[in-house]
Specification:
Largest sheet of chain A: 2 strands, antiparallel
Structural class of chain A: mainly alpha
Shape of chain A: globular
Radius of gyration of chain A: 19 Å
Strand content of chain B: 25-35%
Helix content of chain A: over 70%
CATH topology of the domain at 230-287 in chain B: Alpha-Beta Plaits
Number of strands of chain B: 14
Number of domains of chain A: 1
Strand order of the largest sheet of chain A: 1-2
Oligomer: heterodimer
Number of helices of chain B: 11
Helix content of chain B: 25-40%
Structural class of chain B: alpha/beta
Distance between the termini of chain B: 47 Å
Shape of chain B: globular
CATH class of the domain at 230-287 in chain B: Alpha Beta
Mean pLDDT of chain B: 91
Mean pLDDT of chain A: 94
Largest sheet of chain B: 6 strands, mixed
């Protein structure tokens, strides 16, 4: 086990780039459609909920509701983009199209492939989150300098959710199982993490639970910056997201090795 | 570098409680074409995967291109090209892009890959299809592209799992011709097949596998000589049992496969005399081939 597992880990710090470039080349052909697909959803939420609900809600945590929601949507769009890339694009590359199998004929290891896929999913998350953040700045919900802090947080969020989704990908016998992850994990997380309303609205046990959710940590990093508030516990939030990026990565490696390299 | 390309020593592998490879030992020399021959489920593909380090053996030692596998499989794979049983080309890309992307997996620079693409396209006779999407290619073209892809890293060793399964005869002959060209240039090939003709035409040596065990090994010619050694008459169109008892005194051995009676005899004329006058029989006399060896060694309908 240990020897084989070691041989499956990433071989070096740059091999994954080849996998990233493969996905980039494929994405370039459909970039516009893909961007629209990633952005439509959070934009509709932002302006639909933001303006509609915002009128009724008024101010939240001393900001307009749209501005409050914008930070939540930046984090959520990153979560969704990297999750969907991993379960709906990386999964078929691994499973039906046998592209990973072909890559395993080369000097790349399974770890190189997984790392390349995670980096690519994080890239798409970064792209989606960044566009929402820029829109928020342009419309006046945040200041330009805040992006300096928000963009790295978006990338880290993308990595964490790609890594989690990779575990789901490694376990899923077919597409049909992804719906459980979406509706039983991601959707509740959206409401428990303070994306659309403050966590303080939740009952105490749910507030406690929110401390463990990666999306909550991501929002707690992003929102204070965008609303120009003093941020607390930055190291904790970054640390938590890093754990969510790293631990599932190693777990997915164990599962994928069992699945692909018996 | 030694002149041994692949060395398997006492390799065993089971999936669950099904023993797929059973204490297999074999050696493939550099520059030869070595065939793994066997019925479906004999363990051929598993052996190919173990050589690549993609499946872990339960026991035994594997050395490929001088390095231990799977521990250093990555190093070995730098010098290996793979043609899998089922095409796994990248359908989102053109022929040219497939080669480009695959070269990058070997750490080659874009410039280095672009420099070798023309010769690979020429080798695969795909010059006119360079910018076609993979989905537009015929089965034979896809196989040739897979072969070209396997050569992108200029490998010493090619691992091929049933390289011509599912191809029409014309496409198959073209692949065979390409493989002979590679052998002439000094490449080592290990291929799995259940086509006897393929093994006979290409392989310098081969081993016959059954239930994961090596039941015979040698050059096609030597195996034929050793296990058959005389002409064969195939008889169709009668009751094999009845005909068998009629001609038995004049033959070395009889085997029945399906509705065909294979009779191995040093004296074909005697057999013909015995069968003369029987209506509806078709007789075909031919020199022995690997199929006869295979039938003899693994045949489940063997008579004696």
């Amino acid at each position: 086990m240990s020897e084989g597992y070691a041989a499956a880990l990433p071989a070096n710090a740059w091999n994954w780039v080849a996998v990233w470039r493969r996905n980039y080349l494929s994405w370039k052909k459909i970039a516009l459609a893909s961007m629209l697909g990633n952005l439509a959803d959070p934009m509709i939420y932002l302006f639909g909920l933001g303006t509609g609900l915002g009128m009724m809600v008024g101010r939240v945590e001393d900001a307009s509701y749209v501005a409050f929601l914008a930070a939540g949507m930046v984090a959520t769009s990153a979560m969704t983009a990297s999750t969907f890339e991993t379960i709906y694009a990386a999964y078929p590359r691994m499973h039906h199209q046998r592209i990973w199998e072909a890559i395993l004929y080369t000097q790349l290891t399974l770890g190189d492939i997984v790392l390349g896929e995670l980096a690519w999913a994080a890239t798409k998350a970064f792209l989606a989150g960044t566009v929402i953040a820029i829109v928020a700045v342009v419309v006046g919900y945040a200041a330009w300098p805040s992006l300096l802090y928000v963009l790295p947080a978006i990338a880290l969020t993308g990595f964490a959710f790609a890594s989690l989704a990779m575990v789901v990908t490694a376990l899923a016998p077919s597409y049909h199982y992804f719906v459980f992850y979406q509706s039983l994990v991601l959707t509740p997380m959206l409401f428990l993490s303070g994306a659309v309303f403050p966590v303080t609205q939740l009952s105490a046990p749910f507030q406690q639970a929110a401390h463990f959710l990666p999306l909550a940590h991501s929002i707690d990093l992003i929102r204070p910056e965008m609303l120009d508030r003093p941020a607390g516990g930055i190291a904790l939030h970054i640390g938590a997201l890093c754990l969510y990026a790293v631990l599932p990565f190693f777990l997915s490696m164990v599962l994928l090795r069992r699945r692909l390299m018996r | 570098m030694s002149n041994v390309a692949i060395d398997l020593n006492g390799v065993t592998k089971s999936f669950g409680n099904k023993l797929v490879v059973n204490g297999l030992s074999l050696t493939v020399a550099s520059g030869e074409c070595f065939g793994l021959l066997g019925p479906n489920g004999a363990g051929k593909s598993t052996i190919a995967r173990m050589v690549l380090g993609m499946t872990q053996p339960d026991a035994g030692k594997i050395t490929v291109l001088g390095v231990p596998v799977p521990a250093q499989a990555r190093l070995a794979r730098k010098g290996i090209g793979v043609v899998p049983q089922f095409d796994n080309l990248d359908l989102e890309f053109t022929v040219r892009e497939n080669l480009l992307v695959f070269g990058r997996y070997f750490g080659m620079s874009t410039r280095a890959i672009k420099a070798v693409i023309p010769s690979l396209l020429e080798f695969a006779r795909l010059e006119s299809k360079a910018d076609a999407r993979v989905g537009e290619l015929s089965g034979g073209m896809k196989r040739r592209l897979t072969l070209a892809r396997a050569l992108i890293n200029d490998p010493q060793l090619l691992v091929m799992d049933e390289p011509t399964t599912g191809l029409d005869p014309h496409a198959r002959h073209l692949i065979w011709e390409r493989l002979r060209f590679l052998l002439a240039r000094g490449k080592t090939i290990i291929l799995t097949t259940h086509f006897m003709e393929e093994a006979e035409r290409l392989c310098d040596r081969l081993c016959v596998l059954e239930h994961g065990r090596n039941i015979a090994e040698g050059s096609p010619h030597a195996l034929i000589e050793e296990h058959i050694g005389c002409n064969v008459i195939e008889i169709f169109g009668g009751n094999p049992q009845e005909l068998g008892s009629l001609i038995r005194p004049y033959v070395q051995r009889i085997e029945v496969s399906g509705e065909t009676l294979f009779c191995y005899t040093p004296d074909p004329e005697q057999v013909r005399v015995q069968l003369r006058g029987r209506a509806g029989l078709r007789l075909l006399e031919r020199p022995p081939n690997l199929e006869d060896v295979f039938l003899r060694l693994t045949g489940r309908e063997m008579e004696k």
